[in-house]
Amino acid sequence: MAKVLVTGGAGYIGSHTVKALGRAGHEVAVLDDLSEGHRAAIRSVPIHEGNVGDRAFVDAVLAAERPDAVVHFAAHCYVGESVTAPGKYWRNNAVATLSLLEALIGANAPVFLFSSTCAVYGEPKRGLLREDLPRLPVNPYGRTKAAVEWMLEDFHRAHGLRYASLRYFNAAGADPEGDLGEDHDPETHLVPLVIREALRGEGSLRVFGTDYPTPDGTCVRDYVHVTDLADAHVRAVGRLLSGGEPVRVNLGTGRGHSVLEVIRAVSERAGRPVPYAVVERRPGDPARLVARPGRARTALGWRPRHSGLPELVDTAWRWHEAHPEGYGE
Ligand code: UDP
Question: What is the DSSP letter of 214?
């Protein structure tokens, strides 16, 4: 059992990971400024409310908690917004993380898990994405995440920082027990938007482009269940605490689904077709992002168990049906 501090633990992937770490027997505390997270999502887990870029605050939290591991989710995550407001992303995602890392080096160097992304790969031409491909991000969001990956390599070399960089593909789904789910404001992600359309019938679902070089012309993504992502974090904490080397892994399934396939899966769950309008491409969307998943299995013993599209859609559906206003905060 370890003491684990989770930044951004009140967010979507963070809250599912907090639950999984607790289940695995770890003692968990959250550091979150609740700018995008939800207090209800962490239930009774202790929270230090403040910003990860506030060095004095972070120093005080580290002194109080003395964590063995820090899992760092706190970040902004909208690709589109990062293009129009890059400063916000560089400050929060990169500069604040630098401040956190410097604080950790001074505080008995707990092990460090970083929330990275398949956006570090940019716009790959073909095939499954392997971890050793060059990082060629095409938007500020991806660049801030790639910058932190380089930071981690330098801190490892200079200070012996032990870290794992977990590159998420498309997180979706909700806690199978129904406690936790996805509640972003604004919501921009495909799965919750298709479900919202099915449940509310507002006629607002749009498909961004049907002229991509993919089998049905819509973009292909590797959707991975948030519970599977949470499990990977528990495994990565275990690896690092037992002395494992730093690692950079894809968290994806190796199987891609198009936008129309997702709409079809939700239509099946709904028992009726979900209507949509085809509109222009969304700027910055690569045609296809699918992980080569092998390294996570070798390094973490991880494989996705809940990421089949019907199960993923069903858990998300149940959350949205039971929580029409999300956490209602
Ligand atoms: N998408 C869409 N309509 C929407 C939201 C998303 O057609 O209202 C498409 C988007 O262009 C992308 C895929 O669905 O090809 C997944 O988008 P999402 O924003 O969920 O995740 P991303 O891959 O951008 O991280």
Answer: S
Contact 64, 42 (CB under 8 A): no
Q: Determine the Cα–Cα distance for residues 297 and 232; give it in Å rounded to an integer.
A: 10
Q: Which two tokens stand for residue 229?
A: 């992502």
Strand-strand pairing, 163-168 and 288-289: unpaired
Across residues 32-61, what is the average pLDDT?
A: 97
Distance 47 CA to ligand 1 centre (A): 32
Q: Is the minimum distance from the CB of 236 to ligand 1 under 6 angstroms?
A: no
For residues 6 and 56, give the distance between their C-alpha atoms in angstroms, rounded to a whole number. Answer: 17
What pLDDT, on the 0 to 100 scale, is given for residue 265?
A: 98
**∠320-323-325 over CA atoms, to 5°?**
105
Is residue 70 helix, strand or coil? Answer: strand
Domains of the chain: 3-172+224-251 (3.40.50.720), 190-221+254-322 (3.90.25.10)
- 248: tokens are 């950079």
Question: pLDDT exceeding 70 applies to what percent of the chain?
Answer: 100
pLDDT at 172: 98
CA 59 vs. chain centroid, Å, equals 25
Has residue 125 got a pLDDT over 80?
Answer: no
> Could you tell me which of 24, 41, 23 has the C-alpha nearest to residue 32?
41
How would you class 127 by CB atoms within 10 Å of its CB: exposed for 0-12, middle for 13-18, buried for 19 or more?
A: exposed
Span from the CA of 177 to the centroid of ligand 1 (angstroms): 26
For the segment 183-198, what is each residue's pLDDT rounded down to a tens digit?
998 999 999 999 999 9
Query: What's the CA-to-centroid distance between 207 and ligand 1, angstroms?
Result: 8
Q: Whose CA is nearest to atom 10 of ligand 1?
A: 208
Tens digit of each residue's pLDDT (9 = 90 or more) over 60-81: 999 999 999 999 999 999 988 9
The residues that are catalytic are 141
Both structure tokens of 44: 């009774």
